[in-house]
Amino acid sequence: MPKFALLLAALATFSGSTDAGAAGTLGYGPERLQPVPDSADPLVDAAAVVPGLIVTLAYASSDNFIGRPLYPPDLPCLLRRSVAERLAVAARALALQQLRLIARDCTRPQKIQEQLWKAHPHAGAVADPARGSLHARGVAVDLSLADLSGSPVALPTAFDAFGPAAAAAAPLPESPERAHREALKRAMHDAGFRVNPKEWWHYSRLWGWRWPLAHPERFRPR
Ligand SMILES: [Zn+2]
């Protein structure tokens, strides 16, 4: 069979399989994908799912761009179950490189999102709360890296440093900073996340807008 005929046959098979979404909602682009019901993918304590995860939430201390704590000091790193499971895949890959994940922000209560927006109303760095951020949906996580003993390793900038050096692909010479940033990116992309091009630390689940706003205030440890 000529090559183009094979291609057409493959395309026919592919479109046949997408027809399985006869509900008419399957397609390309978030607006055509099915919303995920909240109860289908509940929040879990990521530390119980992700091997070696270190939780140092920036907004639970004064170590953030606001300069004061916004979260209760004991807030766990809450993520949708499917997100925590994918993060576990990335953590296992990084452990083989003697690295551990540090969670700097996980599910963000909507009212905190509003405070961040007020302090720094720049789309791309902070999500407009009117749209509901991916952090507020429980599908985004801000990360850093530590060695196996838990000591933070070199990375290009501080967490929440807004500027060109924070870009996920900011040019860097061969260095530990670059090697760590790239190791994180590789492990997270392989596990089904995308990086925010403006922030090397911010990763979200593919198609994250399908998930509704989460309710971390309703979370009860099991
Ligand atoms: Zn983030």
Ions, cofactors, ligands: which are bound?
zinc ion
Q: Evaluate the radius of gyration.
A: 19 Å
Largest sheet: 5 strands, mixed
**Beta-strand content estimate:** 15-25%
CATH architecture: 2-Layer Sandwich
Which structural class is indicated by helix and strand composition? alpha+beta
User: How many distinct domains?
Assistant: 1
Percentage of residues in helical conformation:
25-40%
Ends distance:
58 Å
Number of helices: 4
Secondary-structure element string? HEEEHEHEHEE
Shape: globular
In which order are the strands of the major sheet placed? Answer: 2-4-5-7-6
What is the strand and helix layout of this fold?
Elements: H1 3-18, E1 43-45, E2 54-55, E3 78-80, H2 81-95, E4 99-105, H3 110-119, E5 140-147, H4 176-190, E6 193-196, E7 199-205
The structure holds zinc ion (ZN).
Residues 105, 135, 140, 142, 202 line the site of zinc ion.
Describe, in short, the structure shown.
The protein has helices spanning about 5-20, 80-95, 110-120, 175-190, and strands at about 45, 55, 80, 100-105, 140-145, 195, 200-205. The chain is an alpha+beta fold.
Your description of this structure?
The protein is α+β, with helices and mostly antiparallel strands. The protein has one domain (38-216): Muramoyl-pentapeptide Carboxypeptidase, domain 2. The protein contains four helices and seven strands. A hairpin with a 2-residue loop joins strand 6 (193-196) and strand 7. The model is unreliable at 1-26 (pLDDT under 50). Zinc ion (ZN) binds at residues 105, 135, 140, 142, 202.
